[in-house]
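Support request, please re-run this one:
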Amino acid sequence: MINQIGTKVISAETTQQERKSNRQNVLLKSSIDIGSYYFDAIAYDLSLYGAKIKLNLPLERGATFMIAIKGTSNIPSKVSWANNGFIGLEFDYPPDRVKTIFGTLGDRLT
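Re-run finished. Output below.
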């Protein structure tokens, strides 16, 4: 939708339509590996392309790290956005590989 001054207005409906895959609201313990340091995080929303996590560590957009969600194998990821302690991340693996890593949870994300 475009408003009167020509700016695209983003609504929840528009955002959901533009998503590459389904998102699942979750509350899953996660582990972030940055170099030789490990940090606990919580995943709040998950797709085959990325996740929204809560992390008490300021990471800048573009920062790279490994994430393991609920004990899965590590997935290389990068920060897409950060706001108020939440981080949006994008997985570096293709969606079919992420789906395999997530197992039955991955089936709900297609």
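The longest strand covers residues 24-34. Residues 7-17 have pLDDT under 50 and may be disordered.
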